[in-house]
Write a structure and sequence with these properties.
Layout lengths: L1 E5 L4 H12 L3 E6 L14 E4 L5 H11 L3 E4 L6 H6 L1 H22 L3 E7 L22 H20 L2 E7 L1 E3 L17 H9 L6 E4 L11 E2 L1 E3 H14 L6 E5 L5 E2 H12 L5 E4 L14 H7 L8 H14 L7
Parallel strand pairs: 1-2, 1-4, 2-3, 4-5, 5-6, 6-11, 7-10, 8-13
Antiparallel strand pairs: 9-12
Helix pairs in contact: 1-7, 2-4, 4-5, 6-8, 6-10, 8-10
The protein binds nicotinamide-adenine-dinucleotide.
């Protein structure tokens, strides 16, 4: 297939591009590099530097490319920033996705896989999280993703779009061959932050909240390996069908606490990794982990990395070889 990947120079996008190329697809990455890295893009993929805000450029590229499908990663994803600057988030995550969908309809590209998030569930009252639980985001970031799911659902019904929303849990790890990995700036994700302590780039790791109703008092999350996310996208773009939006959780089905992650990082790196306990942050649900049986039934996908230690080992290979990320 000829696949247009918006945001393909970012963390999850670049790993998916690599997997698409390996599966024999012809890939064009479209990315503004506002957060991504040119060097993260597989050399076998074409690269266009462009912004989804530029609807005209987008329309031209989609018309000329004769694409079979689109995978859409491009978004802002800093939850705290979304609370401070909600309109910036609605503009990039929602308005610019509207541009993309309009350009797709005009160019007759009728297949899309979209990066959604477990943040659409807000603070679920049941675990593990199944797709039918209420969608009640508690921050603007999650609200923008739910808004896009609405546009996809309505488009699927109206103009025959085949649409899949993948609701990822916490993306983690790096490519098994060590060639690409995670480099967000600022870094906000737990595993790279802990590994920065091991690299001497940070003095300690802060644990926000040790009095949650979890076995060790710290928050529990589902850490899904980025290569597993990549393979879920390959299956979804190949298997998407028109009719109605299909939404799937993409997680391991296992939860790991903040303390467990820090302990696993100590064991993988051999570094003491000092931790400082602090008060809870507002808006952090105690526990989030997926029931991923729906995507298994539909696409035969399940996570290959289920032991978080292996995920951390892959991240550590990347970070220790690239302590300054892509600037190396
Ligand atoms: N990383 C996670 O744990 C996680 C979890 C759930 C969902 N997601 C979603 O997955 C997607 C990818 O996340 P990521 O961690 O790879 O983020 P990322 O920031 O590394 O990648 C996003 C990419 O989109 C590009 N981009 C942003 N706005 C653009 C625009 N207007 N035009 C063109 N390019 C633009 C950026 O330059 C970047 O390369 C996001 O949509 C995010 O909301 C991520």
């Amino acid at each position: 297939m000829r696949i247009f990947v918006a945001g393909g120079a970012g963390y999850v996008g670049s790993h998916t591009v690599k997997a698409l190329v390996a599966a024999g697809h012809e890939v064009t990455v479209f990315d503004s590099l506002v957060a991504g890295h040119r060097d993260a893009v597989d050399p076998a993929a074409a690269f266009i530097r462009g912004d989804l805000a530029d609807g005209r450029a987008l329309a031209d590229v989609l018309k000329q490319g004769r694409f079979d499908g689109v995978i859409h990663f491009a978004a802002f994803l800093n939850v705290g920033e979304s609370v401070e600057k909600p309109l910036m988030y609605y503009r990039n995550n929602v308005t610019n996705t509207l541009n993309l969908l309009e350009a797709m309809e005009a160019a007759d590209v009728r297949r899309i896989v979209f990066s959604s998030t477990c943040a659409v569930y807000g603070e679920p009252d049941r675990l593990p999280i199944t797709e039918d639980l209420p969608k009640a985001p508690i921050n603007p970031y999650g609200a923008t993703k739910l808004a896009v799911e609405g546009m996809l659902r309505d488009s699927a019904g109206a103009w025959g779009l085949a649409a899949v929303a993948l609701r990822y849990f916490n993306a983690a790890g790096a490519a098994a061959d060590g060639s690409i990995g995670e480099d967000h700036s600022p870094e906000l994700h737990l595993i790279p932050l802990v590994l920065q302590v091991a690299l001497g780039q940070r003095e300690n790791i802060k644990i926000f909240g040790t009095d949650y109703p979890t076995p060790d008092g710290t928050c529990i999350r589902d850490y899904i390996h980025v290569d597993d996310l990549a393979s879920a996208h390959v299956r979804a773009i190949e298997g998407a069908k028109p009719g109605e939006l299909e939404a799937f959780n993409v997680g391991t089905g296992r939860g790991n606490s903040v303390r467990e992650i820090i302990e696993a990082c100590r064991s993988v790196t051999g570094h003491a990794i000092p931790a400082i306990e602090q008060a809870r942050r507002p808006g952090d649900p105690p526990s989030l982990y997926a029931d991923a049986s729906k995507i298994k039934a539909r696409f035969g996908w399940s996570a290959r990395y289920v032991d978080v230690r292996e995920t951390i080992e892959s991240a550590w290979r990347w970070h220790s070889a690239h302590p300054a990320g892509y600037a190396n």
